[in-house]
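Re: [help] complex structure
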Amino acid sequence: MAPSTEFPGNIFYALLFFAALAFFFYSVGVRFRLLARAQAVNRFTEPIKRAIGLVPFVLGNSRVARPYYWYSGLLHTLIFWGFIVLQVRTLNFLLNGVHEDASLQNLLGDVYTWLRPSMDAFNALVIVGVGMAAWQRFVWRPQRLTLNYDAWIILGLIAWLMVTDVMLNSGEIALERGGKDYTSFIAFGLANLWDRIGFSGTGLELFHVAFWYAHLVDFLVFLCYLPYSKHSHILTSVPNVAFRSLQPSGVLQPIGDFEKAESFGAGKLEQFNWKQLLDAYTCTECGRCTEACPASATGKVLSPKQVIVDIRHLMEEQIPPLAPWTKRPEQPTPLIDGVGFEPIWDCVTCGACMYECPVFIEHVPTIMDMRRYLVMEQANMPETAQATLMQLEQRGHPWRGAQLTRTTWIEELAAQSVEVPIFDGSQEYLYWVGCTGALQERNVKVTIALVRLLLEAGVNFGVLGAEEGCSGDPARRLGNEYLYQMQAQANIDTFKAKGVKKVIANCPHCFNIIKHEYPQLDGRFEVIHHTELLAQLMAEGKLQPQAGNGLKQKSITYHDPCYIARHNDLLEEPRQVVEATGAKLLEMGRCRRRTFCCGAGGAHMWVEENRGQRINHARTEEAAGTGADIIAVACPFCLQMFEEGVGSVAAAADREMQVLDVAELLEMSVALGQPAAEASTEPPIGESAT
Amino acid sequence: MPHIICCVKQVLDPETPASQFKVDEAAKKVLPAPGIAPVPSQFDTIAVEAALRVRDAVGDTSITIVSMGPDSYRDVIKHCLAMGADEGVHINDPALYEADHWLTAQALAAAIKKLPPVDIIICGRQAVDWDMGVVGSTIAELLGLPCVTIAKDIRYANNKVTVERVLLDGFETVEAPIPCLITVSNELGEPRYPQLRQIMMAARKEVQVWKAGDLGLDSPSNRVVLEKLYVPQTKVETEFIDGDTPEEKAEKLALRLREAKLI
Amino acid sequence: MAKGIIVFGEVSEDKRLAPITAELLGAARRLAEAGDGFVSCALLGSGIAQVTKEAIARGADKIFLVDDPILADYQGDAYLPIAERISREVEPTVILMGQTMLGRDLAPRLAARLNTAVAMDCIDLSFGDGKLLATRPCYGGSAHAQYSFLTSPQMATIRAKAQEPLPPDDSRQGEVVKLASDLSPESIRTRIVDRRKEKAVGVRLEDARVVVSGGRGLGGPEGFEPLEGLAEALGGAVGASRAVCDLGWYPVAKQVGLTGKVVTPDLYIAVGISGASQHMAGISQVKNIVAINKNPDANIFKVARFAIVDDWKAIIPALTKKVRELKAG
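Output below.
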């Protein structure tokens, strides 16, 4: 039936087909070469897990179709599943084009027949999807989308592909009635329409041939256009998802041997690994990453999507141009210039972008690789970042001007006859206090509250006191891997020397780094976050919160710290503790894994924001918007950020909102063996708990 | 190729929390606070920065670091090498550990004489522990060199230096012939953060170690004696100034500040 | 034989005896009581002859006056040979200078020339049995060190305002000796190309000896105007807390605090600042903090040496006025 089964059609078919394929493979090949030149990375571990993941993530569109993006999710699943299903018909179409007896109908018989209704249905549904997409791009215009011609070309090609498919099928049915044609119900209906209006004979044949070639050309043009379009994701998303990182999202990779490393971080495209470059070819420009990014939301230059798109453009610069008259710049644009200094420093490593990305692009490690390059190869960084690194190097902690020492809080408790055990290997847990918990007055209150709770619950723990060194998180997130490794190695050596096996951490950054990143340096320890432990102790009855503590009349909104909620899936335990106090728990819109960073991540606790609104002010506004009296936190940085925020943001200051750590809230609610020497802060405890 | 020599020293961390600052009055020494590492004296790293800026402007310049002190001073020399200096000389002799400013200058000057001919010697205006501010100028006198102090900018061209100095109420531009000695102040700017490759190279670099005998100082002796070292009893008792009117309070405050020699 | 004490005095720009000279003379007279009682004063400059009378009135027994245009601006190569000559002629027990731009530069070099040593920035001196004991702050002011000398002459520079001048006694008699500079221009190896005055308000925060800082208690950017006036009167710089920099009331470059500037002035006046730990980190080394805040529970009061609980709007203008008065007189 296909016009290409005989001369001259077969010539056209062969020419078109092979020319298109040659062009397509050339286009893919030159791009693949860039990947081949990049750094190696082992993404072939756990192949079964990787393969299984394809089912929900690719086939199931699970990330694309998240409820809060239901519209895009719907239109995408229609088009995507349509394409999957219609591959069958496409294969049939191509086979048919070679020889009239070659067809899936013949091969699969009834199976094919009963696939036909769904294929026709999808012809229509895909057009519906395209219509929804067009509406979104033309009328609604959400900010996250780049409204460029690329999308329109793709939508046009898809729509036309569907139309030509229906038309050519209708012609085929009209010309060669037989079998169970009614299963292709739309084409069948159209065929009947042609009959009714008397469309037949040569006219109909020409109609069929025209739409046959139109369909072929559309298909081949689409194939050839793919590598040049953001739609290349239909080729690259399967490998990109298959080769995704199986590590938790808050983990960075180490630089192995500093002596042998050719470069520290990425200052050129080929200093990225091939997966990072593949990411750039998989970006669909959906913009969900940017929409979730706290830096973008508050007016900074960083747009995670733009970073990836910029990398893609830089890669394109390295590809020999199609048209010989197109000039490429003499010197390719350097990577850092192409992406920009500010975006590299705006990132707070919160991972919201990576959580949203439907195709598992790894924005944060890519930005961090460039940050490492700036810091370690060029020593080029904002003043505040430089001052913090100097401070870390010289004093071993990031808190310049701290008047406390790592043991001041221990001495304070000793003065109140509370003896804090020093870790000596005999205890079950090491309580890792962290720099902030020891050196910042406001945070010392949390440390003390937690210690009182641990003692009350009879937890067998000890602290390191002056032997603690910075965990290395600030250095690592500032991009100084060398300094990080020295600091981490020192701690790992201390842990091993003292026989540390289990660690309690209340700082999510320390928690994340000891749990997931110290193993890279051969330091393997069991780490538990203080909220996890507190919830556990409550469940075991070792801590019994009483409701009569003045908190029953209060409402609390809990802010999920990025580093335990999103990067470590710890969502319920802190809430359990907050609710156990008897207060009413109110949730912010951006909560749980969609939490909005307090602004201190990525070492931004110490790096100034120079543009737009302060991230912590934006989040404080959101917290104030819930109407809660208290903001509950589970991170020392969040605590500092919100304390500053409630003093600066009118909505919070006017209501005199308070900020308290989950441990402080629990301590207020638990009947402690000894009287609390000093009330942490207001509110006053209504009825005495003791 | 111009040769610049920078003199640097190590000090106890000036940002040690106040509660940790303790003096052993019998030994007449400040006790190093536990767990707080010593650091390079701030003006000295600025001196190295000044030398590096001359190199940035002029091209090939060799920069030598000279430091006098016990073993730990090696870290300061390494830090300066990591910033970009080429060579390091460590005068490490117990006979000189208790040197006063005069003897320090004498030893440093003797070391400078032993090194290849120098064009500019750059020192910090004072060390941030003793705050004396005499070693630089004394070295200049011992070597018979012109001396320009409290510099915030150094330009080297045509065999002379143009130095911008900081005055109490302004600035002054001074020209000096080379060789000369310049002391720098913090108005010059922040010392650069070392690049990692420089840090790694510096770690491998050899530092020459010299003794008093190598410098021709056979019986080194001080000229001043430290009689007492103590923490002055400053009460951080807050004095709340009272008055019937704000104006009265303000006047009383001004008078109290004058009494306390603060204005 | 050692003949008393030499004071190297200074003449201010308006060709009057600089206040430091009177302070040095006062200190010298007190020290001289324990010695042979003789105080000489060297005065170098151009067009300065008229100050000798006051110098004598303030306590000098003998003035060495070197009045020469070549000495119009201080240069080490010009002043040093003259200072050396006078010192060698007099052979004093003690030489005193001010801890001024001149003294900082000249004293160490003179000490080297005379094969002796100098103690700088002294706040207290005592003299007995021919021995000078000089006390000076060190370690950023956290400690005091007292020195004695093994060589002669014993030299010290004195911090401004640390010593009391004697009230001028016009009846005092003294000898004035005029000396030629004996300098050839070629012997001065350095050359002053130009000199620029800068207004005190432009003093860099990190270098200022006095800082006046404003916080949210100012209520708005206009609040900084009176603060600038006070800073100018005190010869200092203006700083701001992070909160007000964020609000755009003052430039970010003026921010004092953990992520702003760490400052170490001798005097820090915090106006309308609550004393958040972030801010405190920027002033942790400051010895003398004055806090002016309406809220008696403000954290800043914990570290303040002097405090006023009141509205800054009334305090600052009155304070500025009084400071100007005191500085002029």
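Chain B touches chain C through 81 residues (CB under 8 Å).
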